[in-house]
């Protein structure tokens, strides 16, 4: 967190204007995507131009795919509950589902309550650590909340089309495996698979060549993902699967199974993997993920990540993660290129991603936190709740202090543990090293009266030096 604040402060020192106010929050909400998303008509080229679709499987039947996209279909994407939050890489797939929803298709998000217990070998060098069923269930609940929140935020704050959006579904694939027994599954489903084709998958080949090899459990993952797609086609008309471009093998298995069982052609839309500015994958396994749960990555941290992106990545992320039309993005980038020091593109991106993930209140919180660090601190501190401050200063201690109208600054500093000795407190306060609500106070005997010292929300923020924050909650 400290590193994040330091990076943000460096940007400010270069003259970046972070004067975000409430009217900006309103006028910069996303606009309607445009004619390309008219009901039940979706031009695949639009999603390709946005970089949202990186490849199609199979890529040999474009006319049939476009014909499917011109009539209402189910679009599905799977998410295994291997953590208690989705991450920013998952957001790309959710945006793709919502782009389909805006065109009249029906988005289906599938949480892998069953497949999460098996483990996807893609991108792994060894078997995943088996998960406890209780942990999987808890993760499922968290992921459902993440998804519902994002679908809701898009419908409530971003979509401006007067036509009603199609309904979304969030399913758990354990529901359709619960009643099956292994014998019936083997006799009805796995007989359609050929070992040669299964072994040829890249995810399997890379594991076979590794020291750890691959277990039969994870080898069978592609069978279950293929069976998921068949079930979803039969029950929810899901002829389209959305997945990361590292899922080509699993999508191919589903395509083969469906064609053998039904004779139909279905299609996979492959979305790109998100990379950090240094080129690393953003995800759970790499330890650098931005989480979509506010308890793991706060709205402020999410906002600041996008505000601090290098100029070279802004246009790509605007196309991938927002619902601005390509014309609107072009206008944003024109303003960005004319005055890159103002970071107009980064601010647009940060606002709209935060709005999609955390809604209006989440964006307000992120903007308030930004102002506390870089703008008019006192006026915004007056509006902040304790939770806002705790997400902004994650390492700060929070102390409940009984209000005494005669308490001095030095007494407060000692009461909340800023210093271990009165002599140190007096010396550092006099030297200008203590700040109350981001304003320097150099008088140890200053009385903490209401106003700039005790804010209307009964909170005081104390800072010692550059990075040591203490939150005071006044009680009577």
The number of helical runs is 21
List low-pLDDT spans.
Answer: 1-40
Indicate the structural class. Answer: alpha/beta
**Which of globular, elongated, flat, extended, rod-shaped describes the shape?**
elongated
Mean pLDDT across the residues is 85
Strand arrangement in the largest pleated sheet = 1-6-5-2-3-4
Number of strands: 11
Query: How much helix, percentage-wise, in residues?
Result: 40-55%
Question: What gyration radius follows from the Cα positions, in whole Å?
Answer: 26 Å
- End-to-end distance: 32 Å
What is the percentage of strand-forming residues?
Answer: 5-15%
Largest sheet: 6 strands, mixed
Catalytic activity: tRNA(Tyr) + L-tyrosine + ATP = L-tyrosyl-tRNA(Tyr) + AMP + diphosphate + H(+)
Domain RNA-binding S4: 407-470
EC number: 6.1.1.1
Protein name: Tyrosine--tRNA ligase
Key terms:
single chain, 476 residues, alpha/beta, six-stranded mixed beta sheet, five-stranded mixed beta sheet, 21 helices, 11 strands, 47% helix, 11% strand, disordered N terminus
In words, what does this structure look like?
- The protein is of the alpha/beta class and 476 residues long.
- Strands 1-6-5-2-3-4 form a 6-stranded mixed sheet, with helices on both faces. Strands 7-11-10-8-9 form a 5-stranded mixed sheet, with helices on both faces.
- The longest helix has 31 residues.
- It holds the Pfam family SYY_C-terminal.
- This is Tyrosine--tRNA ligase.
- Keywords: Aminoacyl-tRNA synthetase, ATP-binding, Ligase, Nucleotide-binding, Protein biosynthesis, RNA-binding.
- It catalyses: tRNA(Tyr) + L-tyrosine + ATP = L-tyrosyl-tRNA(Tyr) + AMP + diphosphate + H(+).
- It comes from Aplysia californica (California sea hare).
